[in-house]
Amino acid sequence: MTDGRQVTEWSQVGTGPVRRPATAALTVGKVPCVRQGKAETGRGNEDLTSPPRISPEHASVGTRQIVGRHAHLDRLRAALDEPGPRGTLLELPGEPASGKTRLLAAFREEAKAREVPVWTASGALHGARPGGGRPRAGAAPPVRHPAGAPDGRGGAGADLRAAFAAATGPGGTGLLLLDDLHAADRRSAQTLAALLRDPVPGLVVAAAYRPRQCPPWVRSALEGGATASWRLPVGPLSRADAALMAPGHPAASVDRAHALSQGLPGYAAALLREAEGAPAPDFQEEPVPLQVPGLDAELAALGEDERQVLDIAAVLGEPVDPGLLVAVAARSPAHCAHVVDRLAALDLLRPYPDPPHAWGFRHPLVRAACYHRVLPGQRWLLHTRAAAVLRRRAAPLTEIAEHVARGDCGSDPHAAADLAAAAHDVLPTRPDRAARWLRTALRLTRDPAGRAGITLALAEAEMASGRPWVSRTLLTDMCAAQGDQHQLTLARLAHSRAELMMGRPREGYVPLRRELPRAERVGGALGVRVAAEAAVCAVLDGNRDAVRHLELASRLLPSAPAAAFDTRLAVIEAFTAAYVGGIPAVGGRLASAAAVIDERSDDECAADLGTLTLLAWAETMLERDGEALRHFARGLRVTDRGGPRALTPYLLAGQAHAAARQGRVEAALAAAAEARGAARRMGNAPLAEFADVTHAASVARRDGSTAATPTPVAGAGGSPPDAGSWFAAMTARTAVRLRWERGDPAVTTELLLRACGGAELPRVEACGAAYWAGVLMDLALARGDTVQAAGWARTAEERAEQSGLDGQRGHALASRARLEAHRERPTTAAALAAGAAERFAALGFLHDEASARLVRARALGDLREWREAEVEMAQVRVIAQATGSRALLGVVVTEQRRVGACAGRQSAPASPGHLGLTRREWDIARRVAAGASNAEVAATLYVSVKTVESHLTRIFRKLGMTSRNGLAAALTVA
């Protein structure tokens, strides 16, 4: 077969293929009539020709709505528009559940819209008759073959060809749709081969099949024809197309469905239907019931031996060790090998890439569905057998534990201890699995001391799995009981972390404060942990007692502390200093701690993800955004690989905060939206509100303050904002600022002061106090109170020096520049704004740099230093384009027009006279060099675009330039 081209654009199906009996030869018939959303197949299957719920803009003209697959549809249209004299073959190979049946349905709809005759078949070509569309007059009657008709002579193909030719007519076009061609028997393949060797002019044959199950006789038929051939693989969906399948589903559900389905739309649709109910556990941790499209028919065709081996493989999990399968099946290796080969030929099992000689299912969701088709008693028995075989082999506990937990573990005296030990090993990377094993171990344990230890481990696993409310319930009961003091302290530490995960730092602080006196008396490693964790809770609660707790931790720290202790304490010190103060003293220790953490493996980071998260937050608070973004990304990578998920909202919220300050607006919006969803699922309302307001602030930076959708945060209507915790305080302050920028008249200096805790800004973190003092200054200037504004400008300068952070110094300079500009002191304002812009540029704070440059440009305009003003505005345009900020671009264009209009009323400067340009040419050249387009220059100077173009031609000729970049360089030298 000769391919005309390769098409690799992926596409979408709807809810999966119609299930059909797994017979060797099926007959061709008319297109099923669709009534009330069901196809009349007699099996109650879903109608797969109905359109998916997608936006109209993604619909194909002339077909029912279908996501993607536009390259396939375009190829079909081309074949129908220009029917070849030798016909056309469109091959549609694809994996099971890739959407081949749905694509054929779209082909049929396209043909029906064109009134082209359509024939449909599944697996065979016997008894063909035209159907669908509007056949031409004189259509041939059905072709019937007598019983026992000889094979291999092409007689059936010739009769079928005659029927198609008669129905199509001279110069006409027809469409033959062949689904599940891999199921065709030899006779059907010979019939198809005859049809393709002597094709019907104008007949388009679209054949869909599974390449792995395609027998040699079908491949030979496809490759031996004289028809023009096109091979159009039907591959997986992109993430964007998966989202179009289910509008209204949460992004997290779509991400999960796309990842678990590996992009195959039939599986993705099944997962999205399942996601409409209660949240399900990860399929990598525990197989859950799922209706996999078409699988029932495949399993129904299996023999007893094949079904038994497939059941054992599903219970053993992937990869399937052949030796273990033979031992559990209690059959000979030769017998099992023969059955496995048959299952591989049916593409239910496939060779596993690693280790060699192992087997796996063709898709993880197929394994999950097969597992739940095993009868419960048989499942229990197979797990018990597998556990016994693995124990005899002295396999690692992590390999045995799953079978122990699901088999006959009640009679095993070592089951509880083995499950607890295995859970401890997998907790950092597979917390869901650890929690499941620990729940079984807890059920088997009767000893009170043993139950306490398992309960504590279970609480940690539930927390790491993203269920802190379950941990809190377990730990509340444990803390209320009297027991071993050491375990009680560990329980209170874990209880505190669970409260933090739910956004309740004050409730988390309470149990640690009870432990602090005992920690000071007992000391040791546990005492250091209590004091350090109390400092973290205090910061998140907005309590400055964190310094006192850190001092206690430092006193209790051994003279030669373990490296992990020292590293975590250094990170907590930096995190605390960012809130309380003393930032200059912690920079060196933070850098050293970051170097140590960078040397850790991902598994080591998973075991101590809290330290990595605190490190990233400390770095972004101390204006080290590049390092912070790298560590946030690493933490998210660890959680994506199966690590603890409880800290995911904190990682995403920090990523959004740092990305927004660096001008990565789209990344900030995406991270904020994910953080909001993750925090809500975790029950962390304060963090969800923080993500909401961060998202709104990013939208305001990109599209303008009026574009940001107001969020229901505390402080609405002029009431005092709730600033109970640090995140709540940040949310309240940002919400007030956004409302002020939107022009809300209810926003006053007093309202923002209440969000800051008062005139001394006690609820504002030390690393941001200078910035918020600058915002208070702007509010004072807005109401004309210059005296109060000057006081806030001084406060900004003082707080900036105390912090020792260049970004805060930049904010103090920018605040003073705005004040001086308001006082009509442009020379001072321009110098201060230049200093602020320089500091922001060095840190990568793009939006802050642009704001400072705009202040400087306006001041230079007031000084009639037009050229320097336009240089600043050109830089702002570059920033606006780099960040995608339409709002900033609009501001700078307006400012350029204002400055340009003022400059146009002045006499031309004497310095550029030697360039030989007229005054008008000089005005145009300066604006073009500053980055303005021809249309913008024309609008500024009130001339036509053609006038600007003719002036530019003369300017280029006079200066010997050929480009705008060259013009900018020439004017810079001048």
From TrEMBL:
Return the Gene3D superfamilies for the record.
Answer: Winged helix-like DNA-binding domain superfamily/Winged helix DNA-binding domain
Q: Does the keyword Nucleotide-binding apply?
A: yes
Q: Which intervals hold domain HTH luxR-type?
A: 909-974
Query: What's one GO-annotated cellular component?
Result: cytoplasm
**Which ranges are annotated Low complexity under compositional bias?**
136-150, 705-723
**Where in this protein does the record put region Disordered?**
36-58, 123-155, 701-723
BP GO terms, sorted: regulation of DNA-templated transcription
Per the record, a Pfam family?
A: GerE
Q: Where is the composition biased (Basic and acidic residues)?
A: 37-46
Keywords assigned by UniProt?
ATP-binding, Nucleotide-binding
One example of the protein's molecular function in GO is: DNA binding
Question: Carries keyword Lyase?
Answer: no
* PROSITE patterns, per database record: HTH_LUXR_1, HTH_LUXR_2
**SMART domains, alphabetically?**
HTH_LUXR (SM00421)
Report what the protein is called. Answer: Putative transcriptional regulator
Tell me the organism.
Answer: Actinacidiphila reveromycinica
The taxonomy runs:
Bacteria, Bacillati, Actinomycetota, Actinomycetes, Kitasatosporales
